[in-house]
Amino acid sequence: METVVxxxxxTGHLHLGNYFxxxxxxxxxxxxxxxxxxxxxxxxxxxxxKPEDFRQSVRKVLVEYLAAGLDPEACTLYIQSDLPQIPExxxxxxxxxxxxxxxxxxxxxxxIRKHPDNINAGLLTYPVLMAADIIIHKATKVPVGKDQEQxxxxxxxxxxxxxHLYQTEYFPEPHAYNFGKELVKVPGxxxxxxMGKSEGEGNAIFLVDEPEVIRKKVMRAVTDTGPGxxxxxxxxxxxxxxxxxxxxxxxxxxxxxxxxxxxxxxxxGDLKKQLAEDIIMFTAPIREKVxxxxxxxxxLEQVIALGGLKARxxxxxxxxEVRAIIGFTN
Length: 330
Ligand code: ADP
Ligand code: TRP
Known about the structure:
By secondary structure, this protein is mainly alpha-helical. It is built from 13 helices and five strands.
């Protein structure tokens, strides 16, 4: 049995990218491993949310985690900011993280490009906080999407530096994990890149989107001018639609449309209709559970209180040992 940690930032509703990149693994791993899954509310602060929106976002992610199939009896489910040990470990880890490597981090460079008006130090040290989240439970496996690969590499660097400096093997190396071996990158509907909530209107399909919204978004998805000649290679936006189809449809359906594309007789409208209906079918049970669970405040409070308790126990153990290794006197 291994120790598993992962989290999702509380910046809004969960989308299909979150589901297939991360949550699908959470559900599968929770019964086989010691799992800690959390809502990354500290990470969400980099964009300065209003307190009321902030509170609502945390609640949304909690409800959607549970609706998607996280079982609070099988895994430890908590809110990041409920563990005071995480910011303390984050501070300590900052001593082993070099400014140069943080500045070279792809996600940081992207944030600078997109938000030149808000390049705060929290963004720079985002990977350090993420490493603290992971090693506070001495995790070895971290189920995440492809975009998080570099952050995991940085976490391994911090761990190895710490171990080397103190001549210990205290922290194990954490590795990104996906049960299908390859890390997943779910494309967005706008023709390129990845699905994400900050990528612009219509790019992401949220688990709670109503059928009409899903149909509208999918029908508006970018394609190309036509399949061209028989056997011609797929353009990127069309390949993205097939990629999405393969996540929510049967193999027969995917094969059928692939053949149509191959013969250059495909009608993108038909492909989109099928994709929309299959997404609707896939997400319907989750939407149903969201309605059920979100009415039950007592249950939500119970879940988060118990999860916090269990997670703090594990975190406190690690922090105590780390303090001893560093040389603090108690
Ligand atoms: P977002 O990118 O929408 O802001 P987060 O950054 O909070 O979402 O991501 C939470 C988890 O979901 C991470 O493990 C991340 O890798 C995964 N994830 C997000 N978008 C995608 C995607 N398009 N494909 C695969 N995984 C994704
Ligand atoms: N950085 C991750 C993201 O944006 C979220 C996250 C924060 C995380 N801490 C983590 C993921 C620890 C895995 C483990 O998607």
